[in-house]
Amino acid sequence: SYPETFTIEGIVAADSIIVGFVGYQTNNFTYVAIDNVKLEYAGFDAGIYLESLIDDMDDYMSDNGDLLSAKLVADLETAIEEAEEAQDLEEEMMDAEYIRIQGVFTGVKDAVAKYQELYLFWETTFTDAIGECAEYPGIEDAVAVHDEISEFIENFIYNETAGYDEIVALMAKGEQAIIDLYLSQMKEASKENPANFTFLLPNANFE
């Protein structure tokens, strides 16, 4: 074997790049030695990054259609159109548009993550609390909020206004509804029937 010099050129499209080496064992050579590695930054080409961003947004819409409200779909479609138009801008303006549109895409992904969190909360934590506290005085108010979240989830993909802020607000409303449900025990608490406020203890586990 003899020393060789290799150059790898690539585009960092997702904030990181991974470079790997594969060695092929033969009867004569069973190892690979790597020395004098140099990493260089060749500059920022917004046009290339915009193309990659367009592909990423398009793929994201295709892969997550059941998790996108009508508003989020519209946001992505508009962002894709604007990214395509931005490719004809001068370099400085193109750079600014790339950063702005990438921010829109990040906002959509954050909203989807928060929607998935809301769905899990509604399906497990909130539903379990209602089943556990079915006899509490505040059950009707809690059920009303639970139904509101249920309707929101059922019609989410058709919702033209549902974005990150709306999802966060509904999540907070559900969490407060659970607290109010537990606290409603106070109305009927007595020495014979004490209210259970164990839920106020963080990480309570007495099993």
In short:
The chain has 207 residues and is mainly α.
Secondary structure: elements and pairs:
Elements (H helix, E strand, L loop, with lengths): L45 H18 L6 H17 L4 H42 L6 H16 L9 H20 L24
Describe this structure as you would to a colleague.
This protein is mainly α and 207 residues long. Helices cover 55% and strands 0% of the residues. Helix 1 packs parallel to helix 3 and helix 2 (70-86) packs antiparallel against helix 3 (91-132).
Core attributes:
mainly alpha, about 210 residues, about 0% strand
Rg over C-alpha atoms, rounded to the nearest angstrom: 27 Å
Tell me, briefly, the overall form: elongated
Proportion of helical residues:
40-55%
Structural class of the helices, strands and pairings? mainly alpha
Distance between the termini: 65 Å
Mean pLDDT: 87
Report low-confidence residues grouped into runs of 5 or more: none
- Name the beta content range: under 5%
Secondary structure: number of strands: 0
Number of helices: 5
Order of helices and strands: HHHHH
The biggest beta sheet is recorded as: none
